[in-house]
Amino acid sequence: MTLSPDLRFNPPDVFNLTRESVVVRDPSGRILAWNRAAERLYGWSSEEAVGRVADDMLWSTPPLTRPAPGSNDVWTEQIVRVGRDRVTLLIDAQFTARRNADGALLDIVETSRSVSSERAALSREGEHRYRTLFHAMPTSYLELDITAIRPFIAQHRDRSIAEIRAHLLASPEIVQQIMRATKVVDANDHAVEVFGGGDREGMFDSVEPFWPPESREVYVDSMIARLQQVPRFTREVTMTTLSGCRIHCIFTACLDAKIVGDGRVIIGIVDVTALTVANRTLEEGRERYRALFHLMPIPLCRINTDVVAAILKTFSRAQRQDPEAVLSARPELMHHIANSSFVEEANVRAAKILGLEAPDDLRGLPAGSLLSSRPDTLRRLALASIRGVPFEEETQIVSPTGEELDVLLSMSFIEHAGSRFSLAGLIDIRDRLKAEGDLATLRADFAHAARISMLGELAASIAHEVNQPLAAIGASGEAGLRWLDRSPPNLDQVRTQLTRLVGQAERASRIIERIRTTAKSSIPERQTLDLSKVAQNAVSFLDHEARALRVSLDLRLSVDPCLVVADRTELEQVIANLVINAMQAIVSSEVRNGRVVVGVGATEHCAECYVIDNGPGLEPHVQKRLFESFFTTKREGMGLGLSVCRSIVQSLGGTMAGENRSDGVGARLSFRLPRAKAPPSTAC
């Protein structure tokens, strides 16, 4: 072909040396130059190609688009072309538009290469990878041939999708026919193992055995999804193995014909039977928890304490060992914990005790507001939460309505699924505290009655005790008057007698004060006391009574302080009552040389006071009923003394016992109290 002068192109010397195809065309698309690489790629020689329209000769798809002025003059495209031998080629091409000084288009230079062989290799590699993955995955995969169901689709082409679905669901026999026509053409090893029991040959038949009647609606919906050209269909469904075992699974069908091919469907099946059972068990557990939580007859609250977990993450190992020091150094942490911990859930009983109508009214309530009147409890609770140990304490809480309630607060701290919460139980103890208060008042009344009774029994001794300082006062007064009557008066002797008089008056005052204190009815006042000193005071009160009854009193006190927490008057009453009972038992049995030993000793945790006598001892029936109320062996006794004594000891957390001596004749009565750590009161 002869070209006009304006179509001639003079290529440079290296034009034919490049391995890439180079084609130069004019603005109309006619070929101006065609190098040797282009001859090898497409099959036409330079003489045959120059002058022809490139896109027409090569059947280019898409054809070249002429660049608009001002657009990008360099671009790339992937083009499908047909060579001289009618072989389809996939071409990667780069185009460069060249312009003159005025911006007019001169020509377009194309450099290109075929990627058909590379794509074919990638396709073969992709197929190999797909097959390898298909068979190696721990999920069941089946490749299905659905070409046999095309007649059914053609038969119902004029119907709507909804009509086809309704028709299939109403015609189970047609669905069964379609299943039989759908064949398994491939199955991976996992599918063979799960559904075929290892029998590969048995797998390559229809899909009917895998679909129980109750699951066939899902099969129909997968067909409908293919008709609607939905690329992927997923459902949770029950399927069956060839041996008839049911499997709960996630069924996914890849329906895109461009991916799996026309007439093919690939399905993936994930066996979630164990997961379903676990989820069912978990849900049953949650339901049991909800039933237990909401139907329990005690108030319960679930409190979110994630803030504590967040604070713990900031603690060093040393700080975790001593969180109390951290809270003392950083008081703002307590405020943060109190306001950031909140009620997540509450039962009806909790709402009722807090004066609310519905449990939901408590949701979001800051936990710290419930303990606003007891910051000490809140601090101990925070420390228990940080340490992760259970907490229980009698305290007061403030309801959202402002009412202050006495409760037993019990808390357990739980970490689950990355979250931290606390389960709080509230027991209303207002009635119990009132009953305890009434009981304490009644016990105090009984103790008072017992003290009055004891004073009555000691009336003669008391009269003697009071009479002694009064007689001494009288004698000192008379002596003082005689010294004043002398001439001159002996003032030194008068002063001496007056000093004795004052001393005896003070002694009488102390005796009367002790009697008044014993007789007085008052609320017990507990303090730290030395049990040895209390025993000494109680025994000194009985000295005259012991001498009158001709019974010796022997004190055996501990050298070290035996500290206890008790009311002084009550504790002296207990010891005095035991000593009086011992002396009376000796007198009633007419024992000569009667002797009562009062001793105080201590172990690591307890302080003990014992009273031993050499009387007749305890008869079996007496020992059995020794501490019963209104039981007495005395003709004029009320039977309250030992019962009240044991009640006092038990109220102090102690125990009381009575038995016969193991080292001789007589009885041994004793009581034990917890030792106190605080120093003794100055009142001791």
Report what the structure shows.
The N and C termini lie far apart (136 Å). It is built from 27 helices and 22 strands. The strands form 5 sheets. A 5-stranded antiparallel sheet has the order 2-1-5-4-3. A 5-stranded antiparallel sheet has the order 7-6-10-9-8. Strands 12-11-15-14-13 form a 5-stranded antiparallel sheet. The protein is α+β, with helices and mostly antiparallel strands and 684 residues long. A hairpin with a 2-residue loop joins strand 14 (404-416) and strand 15 (419-428). Helix 6 packs antiparallel against helix 10. The chain is elongated and about 175 Å long. The chain folds into 5 domains: 5-114, Beta-Lactamase (2-Layer Sandwich); 121-271, PAS domain (Beta-Lactamase); 281-428, PAS domain (Beta-Lactamase); 429-523, no CATH class; 525-684, Heat Shock Protein 90 (2-Layer Sandwich), CATH 3.30.565.10. Helix content is 44%, strand content 24%.
Radius of gyration, in Å, reads 53 Å
Can you tell me the CATH superfamily of the largest domain?
Histidine kinase-like ATPase, C-terminal domain
Low-confidence stretches: 1-7, 680-684
What's the total helix number?
A: 27
User: Which sheet architecture does the biggest sheet show?
Assistant: 5 strands, antiparallel
Tell me the number of strands.
Answer: 22
The number of domains is 5
Biggest sheet: strand arrangement = 2-1-5-4-3
Beta fraction of the residues? 15-25%
Which fold name is given in CATH as the topology of the largest domain?
Heat Shock Protein 90
